[in-house]
């Protein structure tokens, strides 16, 4: 039997909002084969993760443009049009957040999100006004699944890890949180999450 949950902690990308580099670059690259190559070799999720972890954007872009000079304009688009990689909310999860907030469940988030991109995106999404605190990897220069970001989050949120439910779509992040004593939900879809929240008496 799980212990009582005092607070719910969400991941952001692919739990609350869709995030897909292809959503931007499919507008800029007509050839499907070249698009696949570009996302596998130039602006990759692994490269983007360096920015999430706190690496300077201008340094990353300058280095990448030296490596791939024929893609300079596209690499610039990564830096200037990031919001276009966020096509919209994940179906159903915003409603769950609002329902939890309506029941006065403390809400928090831990997100791998580059600091300048978060500063640009956050004001556009009022859902995050419902959260007591959000730990952003780019601000802290620590990214999930590093244990340090979970330790920092528990200290900031003011609840013991075992009293918090952490929700994330990434298996490595879930494993890291579980190893540190957090209760966890590996996210796939809102309906499964809703059932889990109901079983815990949170909804």
From TrEMBL:
InterPro entries attached to this UniProt entry: HAD-like_sf, HAD-SF_hydro_IA, HAD_sf
Top-level lineage group: Bacteria
SUPFAM superfamilies, alphabetized: HAD-like
Keywords of this entry: Hydrolase
GO MF assignments: hydrolase activity
Protein name: HAD-IA family hydrolase
